[in-house]
Specification:
Layout: H1 6-21, H2 25-33, H3 43-56, H4 59-66, E1 79-83, H5 93-101, E2 105-109, H6 116-128, E3 136-138, E4 147-151, H7 154-164, E5 169-172, E6 176-180, H8 187-198, E7 208-214, H9 220-225, H10 236-252, E8 257-258, E9 263-266, E10 276-282, H11 285-294, E11 299-303, E12 313-315, H12 334-339
Parallel strand pairs: 1-2, 1-4, 2-3, 4-5, 6-7, 6-11, 7-10, 9-10, 11-12
Antiparallel strand pairs: 8-9
Helix pairs in contact: 1-3, 1-6
Length: about 350
């Protein structure tokens, strides 16, 4: 028999949000030391991820989000296998949140890159409401599942399809985010775009890896506006990627711009290497919009103030890494999928 009670579970997650907004010494210690497990998980990056989650976990936000779904509190819970990514801190938390609040049980296969943080948050949740303990389990291998949500690369997606294709599933592949500039952006907007490019060192699918710019665009204003992000190059792994890609472009005599911590190169591809921003010129906003629409399945979100009418989520400058509860990965409504099981 399930202990699921929507109201008390919502209150528990809201209490977790309150805790994350006022972290104790134990959480502060994890924030400071996690980089010893994963060098990319700096205290700043973990705090950014925690702040994003905490902002969503309020009674008002949770109730407003769940009001759009028909969740039967007396349902027989289904076992939902979760294969979590580990590219940025706590990137799998939203999937776990969805499974638990839909009245199902999460079988969590955490990434080796990000297992301590998610375990800590869920243990804290159980401290807040002990009945939630039956709503999730960490597993080394997925079995006895009724549905699966798996996040990986284009390569692992084929593996996921093979193993999980016979049950209801959401399988996510590689995605990247882009920005569309008109040339009329203010310094403040371009500076905010720096958050979208450099947040989490550019490792997230919501990070901007490419910009669409009008023909003949002058990058000087852009480079001046993002100068304050130069400290990313102090991180040894980021710096190694910057040096490596710079040397390749120089050896191959590839035309590119270089401001000392970011390489900007004209390229048709969406996914740029770390420390590189691709760009492509457009002749008209209509053509640029059509290009975005034709790549819908490869784009996570679009950063722009140009009033675009596209299928992907469009966000303001600086907001790509601040998804709301209903800003679902790949545009697939995870909560509806789970409520309908």
């Amino acid at each position: 028999m399930s202990n699921y009670n929507p109201d008390t579970y919502i209150q528990a997650f809201a209490a977790l949000g309150e805790y994350l907004r006022q972290p104790d010494e134990q959480l502060q210690n994890i924030i400071q030391t996690e980089k010893q497990q994963n060098a990319w998980f700096t205290p700043e990056n973990i705090q950014s991820a925690i702040d994003s989650i905490a902002n969503n976990l309020t009674i008002f936000n949770l109730n407003e989000w769940l009001a759009g779904y028909d969740i039967n509190a007396n349902r027989q819970p289904k076992n939902v296998g979760l294969v979590l990514a580990g590219n940025i801190p706590l990137v799998g938390f939203h999937d776990v949140l969805c499974v638990i609040l839909s009245g199902n049980k999460a079988l969590i296969k955490a990434s080796t890159q990000d297992s301590r943080l998610i375990r800590f948050l869920l243990n804290k949740l159980v401290e807040i409401n002990s009945t939630i303990v039956g709503s999730f389990a960490f597993v080394d291998r997925l079995q006895d599942f009724n549905a699966v949500i798996a996040t990986g690369s284009d390569n692992t997606s084929r593996y996921f399809e093979y193993y999980f294709g016979k049950v209801p599933h959401i399988i996510r592949k590689n995605r990247n985010s882009i920005a569309l500039l008109t040339g009329n952006e203010t310094r403040e907007e371009l500076h905010a775009l720096g958050h979208d490019i450099f947040g989490y060192y550019g490792l997230g699918c919501r990070n901007v890896s490419k910009v669409l710019v009008p023909a003949g665009y002058d990058f000087r204003n852009f480079f001046e506006s993002i100068e304050s992000y130069s400290e990313v190059n102090n991180h040894h792994k980021y710096h190694n990627n910057y040096d490596y890609n710079k040397s390749i472009y120089l050896v191959n005599r590839d035309k590119h711009y270089d401001n000392g911590f970011l390489l900007v190169k004209q390229d048709e591809r969406l996914a740029s290497p770390l420390a590189v921003l691709f760009y492509e010129e457009y002749d008209s906003l209509e053509a640029a919009q059509q290009q975005i629409i034709s790549n819908t399945d490869k784009i996570q979100c679009v950063v722009s103030e140009a009033g675009l009418q596209v299928n992907n989520q469009v966000v303001k400058f600086g907001q790509s890494q601040q998804p709301g509860l209903a800003d679902y990965a790949d545009g697939i409504d995870t909560m509806k999928f789970l409520a309908d099981l």
